Amino acid sequence: MAGALSVSLALSGGAARGAFHLGVIAALERHDVHIAAISGTSIGAVVGVGIASGMSAFDLIRLFKSDALRAVFGFNYFRKGLLRIDEKAAILREIAPIERLEDMPVAMFITCVDLLSGNKVCFSKGEATKLAVASSALFPIFRPIAYENYMLIDGGFMDNLPISPLLELEYPIIGVNLHPIDAKAKHDLHSILKRALFLAFTAPVQAQIAKSDLYVSDPSLSNFGLFTFSEMMRCFELGYRVGSESVLTFMEQQSII
Q: What is the pLDDT at residue 85?
């Protein structure tokens, strides 16, 4: 039955792996699952504002593959080598045609970190695309984004799977994580150090996973580079396959089908 299941989504950061988010959402659309609320950080916020604006997953993957989106992140040699995000790029308006979060038909929450206070900040109102790119500003690679009284950077520093804003809603929570833990990590010193840093960064995610009703990820995501945009369609297809399998199992458990 169309619309028989309504859910909320928590979408993690993960740069170009965000195509996996779109594949999972395409699977939800295919099975008539209604998305009632979205909470996202980094690329999860960018995907989220598009879906919450009424765009389909297939609309968005077409835009995500374009050179115009990659150009949003441009190098600026005159600002001490930091990458500058073009927060006014026209393609951002194509991704999220509704300008403000509070006007979107789907409840949308964006997680950022405020450098000035050192606190996590969750927005449910405000400029959608500006807040989405602020949540993607991985400092010190990218310059912080000034917004109102905040200096905002990537929300993943404090909450890379932002489930908390969804807990008081009435919908089952689907958490989609683009950073699976690789059980086959290499044992050389460099790899061990990288893994230690990765585990420190993702430790809060493990606590969040337990709060979700359905957790979606896949070990194969480790094979996709965070900035390898040429593999987006393969990542999208992986998300669609894993998402379809997961949602069908979940619907059976909920006695929806």
A: 76
